[in-house]
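hey can u check if this looks right to u? its 239 residues, i copy pasted from the old doc so theres a chance i mangled smth
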Amino acid sequence: MAIANKIQNNGTCHLKFRAGAAGLHLFNRNTGINLLVEEIKLPPSKWSSAPRQVSIALTNTCDLACHHCYAPKKPAVLDFNRLKGWLIDLDVNGCIGVGFGGGEPTLYPYFAELCAYTTKNTGLAVTMTTHGHHLSAQLIEKLAGNVHFIRVSMDGVRATYESIRERSFDALIQHIIALSSIAPFGINFVVNSKTIVILRQPLKLLLNLVAPNFCCCLNNLPKNPKVLIRILGTYYKNG
């Protein structure tokens, strides 16, 4: 679709088109606007061949040791030049966004360069998932304009958070406040038997931080629903 490519590459528009069975999908990575035009049906030969969104684990390296984490802690990294080739292919074939994770993506040696390359050379939206503790002022400055959405892992608040991640909760909040100046952000929250009874606390905190998105991941909750209901009932009854 020549017209789509022409509009997509216009530096003032950033509008990307993706054709599929559901219709024509329009996406603006800068505003986050998604629009599906169901009335426009293109033949299968014109459908985008790449997935709509792709997640890439840049490295398995992480300097935390959270008990619920399933990722292997091996110092493996993806080749930078190979990644650039993948990103170009994904963009040309209709992918609209790429999410960088790990491990901890900020420990990838070329992380800032990779985000800048993706934004400059493709129409892909760049998102990332991070524990947040390496978001220095210098890194945030390099990422400005090159990351469109950031997810921060925060499994609890204060003492609960620090017991799980063994990092300062106050330092995390300062990093979140700093990153909020360059991109919208959301919070990933692992819900297990230890954190389910404190869900009110992070939700209240997020209202103060004006976080637009809160994502819960269930992990090792009681299998018996009666036990789960009793845990929640006891907690919320008391406060």
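The first helix runs from residue 2 to 8.
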